[in-house]
Amino acid sequence: MGITGIESFKGDLKITGQSSAPGGRYERVKIMGDGVVNGDVDCSRLKCIGTLVLNGSLSSEHISMIGTGSFSGDVQAGQVKLTGTAAIGGDARLNVLRGSGSVETKGSLRGEQFRITGQIQTQGDCAADVFNLRGMFEIGGLLNAGEIDIRLYQDCWVQEIGGEHISIRKASLRNPLQYFYFRPQPHACLTVNVIEGDDIYIEHTKAAVVRGNRITVGPGCEIGLVEYKESFEKKKSARVSEYRKL
Description:
Layout: E1 5-9, E2 12-55, E3 58-71, E4 75-88, E5 92-105, E6 109-122, E7 126-152, E8 156-170, E9 190-202, E10 205-217, E11 222-234, E12 239-245
Pfam family, one: Bactofilin
Protein name: Polymer-forming cytoskeletal protein
């Protein structure tokens, strides 16, 4: 690998061009180009414009990434701003995640606020206070958040959804995302086993059970059973096999 430059000073690490460096504890880590870091990294701030391969785990207060990041271990961060792709080989604890692109984890994804335009994929659970997604997602376990607001661009899958306020709607075909592969599909649908919450509005969703206080089943839905405590409304084009008041 050709080395353009590596600088390590005052606890900072800077990689410019194509280069590699050891892991460790740093104040700031800055990647401008294609960087490989071997070992765990603990830093205050990480900024990457280009490509970062980290063979280890990452702990950082602030992450700003434009490009592609690959992390073989766990990632823990306070604030994350993403434009591009982040692939995480373990669990991810990201308190605030904002941006556009793709986030993939081999484990679970947890935090406080997730506001993403693009794609989220986890093999484990996904939990947050606020889950706001415009795009698509595949979650191997449970999606749990106080506030869930989803616009479906492509087919999505999750085992279960739990929350207080849940809104799942079909994306507007007039408002495609920046990435061509995230253009809204006219027949995009969410497939889930169970949805449970207080206030629920769903469109283009296939579910075995929907359970909550106030439920509206909108167009394009195919629901096996609806169980509600206060109110239930079904739009004309929705199909509900059975419903009952608890």
